[in-house]
From TrEMBL:
Organism: Microbacterium thalassium
Listed PANTHER family: SLR1162 PROTEIN
UniProt keyword annotation of Magnesium present: no
Residues spanning the membrane: 142-162, 174-197
Record domain ABM: where: 9-78
Gene Ontology molecular functions: monooxygenase activity
Record InterPro entries: ABM_dom, ABM_predict, Dimeric_a/b-barrel
Domain of life: Bacteria
UniProt name for this protein: Antibiotic biosynthesis monooxygenase (ABM) superfamily enzyme
Keywords associated with the record: Membrane, Monooxygenase, Oxidoreductase, Transmembrane, Transmembrane helix
């Protein structure tokens, strides 16, 4: 069965084993893959880190606008050529996709941000740690509710002052309010709430006795 299309950005995280004797070659290879992906429609960003100086684990992440643009990149001859060129020293061991609502809770890599001396450019230095799992569903539900309730309450109160709004059919009122609130929730409210709650969302689960 074909995978259903998603209107949400899709994040792909890949774990690879890389020959430690070919680190310099692998570094150029990983950067070449990032450069190739950035030229495709729907590309939203990518990055890669090593688990440690003595480790052969490398993590790569990229994000596309939707399933169609992701599959265009994954099925492209450019990516096939790139994968083949690294087959001698890089072996893929795990691939994870996160789509839909879980995309708001992604925390693939932690980044230390610093400014280069004598420059206005900002450099990011990745913290060498694996990709954490998404928070439990109930935490995601609580986070969404904490953002949705006050926004919906405020919108309902403000729309009540719009002349003639209350006289509209219920379906039309709901349509208008959801058209207004969905982008607001997606691009402003949920990112802000997840940033505030990130320590709680990423707290490790307690193991049962």
């Amino acid at each position: 069965m074909a995978e259903p299309e998603s209107p949400h950005p899709i994040t792909v995280a890949i774990e690879r084993r890389v020959d430690p004797a070919r680190t310099v070659e692998a570094t150029s290879w990983m950067q070449a893959g990032t450069d190739l992906a950035s030229g495709f429609d729907g590309f939203l960003g990518s990055g890669w880190v090593r688990a440690g100086e003595a480790s052969d684990l490398w993590y790569m992440l990229y994000r596309f606008r939707d399933i169609a643009t992701l599959e265009a990149w994954e099925g492209s001859p450019q990516r096939s050529w790139w994968l083949e060129s690294g087959r001698a020293f890089a072996r893929e061991v795990r691939v994870e996709r996160r789509t839909g609502i879980e995309g708001w809770f992604d925390a693939p890599f932690a980044l230390d941000v610093e400014t280069r001396p004598g420059s206005d450019e900002t450099a990011t230095s990745p913290v060498r740690q694996p990709i954490p799992a998404a928070p439990p569903r109930w935490k995601q539900a609580v986070t969404i509710w904490l953002g949705f309730f006050p926004v919906n309450l405020l919108a309902s109160w403000l729309l009540g002052y719009v002349p003639g709004f209350e006289a509209l059919p219920l379906v039309v009122r709901v349509l208008i309010s959801t058209l207004l609130l969905t982008p607001l929730m997606t691009y402003l409210v949920l990112p802000a709430v997840t940033r505030m709650l990130r320590p709680w969302l990423q707290r490790p689960r307690r193991l049962a006795a």
